[in-house]
Amino acid sequence: MTDTHDQIAGLLLAAGGGRRLGGRPKALLTHRGRPLVEYAVGVLRAGGCGPVHVVLGARADDVRGQAELGGCVVVENPDWAEGMGSSLRVGLASLAGTGVRAALVSLVDQPGIGGEAVARVLGGYRDEDSLVAAAYDGARGHPVLFGARHWPGIAASATGDRGARAYLKAHEAAIALVECGDVAEPFDIDTEADLSHLE
Asked: DSSP characters for 91-128?
C-alpha cells in the first residue's frame, strides 16, 4: 500500500515581490540563516508532504541561485504581480497529471507555522474530495489542503490576491478545521515591523 502522504504534495506559494518591504521578495528574506523559501520547503517536508512544488515569481533567478531547492519542482509564475491567485493557478496546474491526490498549500511569509501544523492538516485528508484547513482559535487559516477534485473550481475562481478565498467561502460547510493554535502562529511577514519575527 502506498503511503498516503506520498500522494499529497506540498504547494508553496513564494512568488510575491514584497511591495511593502521595499520590493524585497519574501522568498529571499533570511530566517534561521537561510532564505525563507528554503525554510518553508523544510517545513512542508517535516510535516510529511510527498512531492514539494514551489511557485516563484519576483526575482526568480536570484531565488534559485540563493536557495537550496533540490528535490523540489520549481515553477515560475510570469504573472506573479497580479497576486496570489495567479500563483495558486500555476501551482495547481503543475500538479495536474502527476497522480497527486491532494495539495497542501502554504505561504512563504508565514514562518510561525511549522511542521506540526502541516502534519495535523495532512492528518485530516480522507480522499480527493477533502478540504482541510488549519484553524487558530477557531478561525480558518493556513495551511489549507485541497483534494484534487476541488482544483478546477479553485483555479477558476482564484483571481487577484484572493487565492482560494471565494472558493472556500462557497464550500465552507465541507471544510474540516484542524486546530493548530497550540503549535503555530499564523502571522504574516508583510511590513518592516514584521521582520522582527524572523530569526
From this structure: HHHHHTTS---EEEEEETT-TT--HHHHHHHHHT--ST
pLDDT at 18: 87
Contacts of 157 (CB under 8 A, 6+ apart): 164, 166, 167, 170
Query: What mean pLDDT is reported for the chain?
Result: 94
**Neighbouring C-alpha atoms within 13 Å toward the C-beta of 151:** 22
What are the DSSP E strand ranges found in 28-84? Answer: 30-31, 34-35, 52-56, 73-76
Q: Which three cell numbers stand for residue 46?
A: 517535516
Q: Is the pLDDT at 2 greater than 60, yes or no?
A: no
- Rounded Cα gap, residues 17 and 121, in angstroms: 28
| pTM confidence score | 0.95
Q: 182, 144, 181: which is closest to 164 by C-alpha?
A: 144
Peptide bond into 143 cis (omega under 30): yes
**Predicted confidence (pLDDT) per residue in 152-168, tens digit:** 999 999 887 778 889 99
Residues pairing with 44 in the sheet: none
E-strand stretches of the chain:
8-14, 30-31, 34-35, 52-56, 73-76, 102-107, 131-136, 139-147, 176-179
| CB atoms inside a 10 Å sphere around CB 53 | 25
Neighbouring CB atoms inside 10 A of 121's CB total 27
User: Which of 1-5, 29-33, 160-164 shows the lowest mean pLDDT across its residues?
Assistant: 1-5
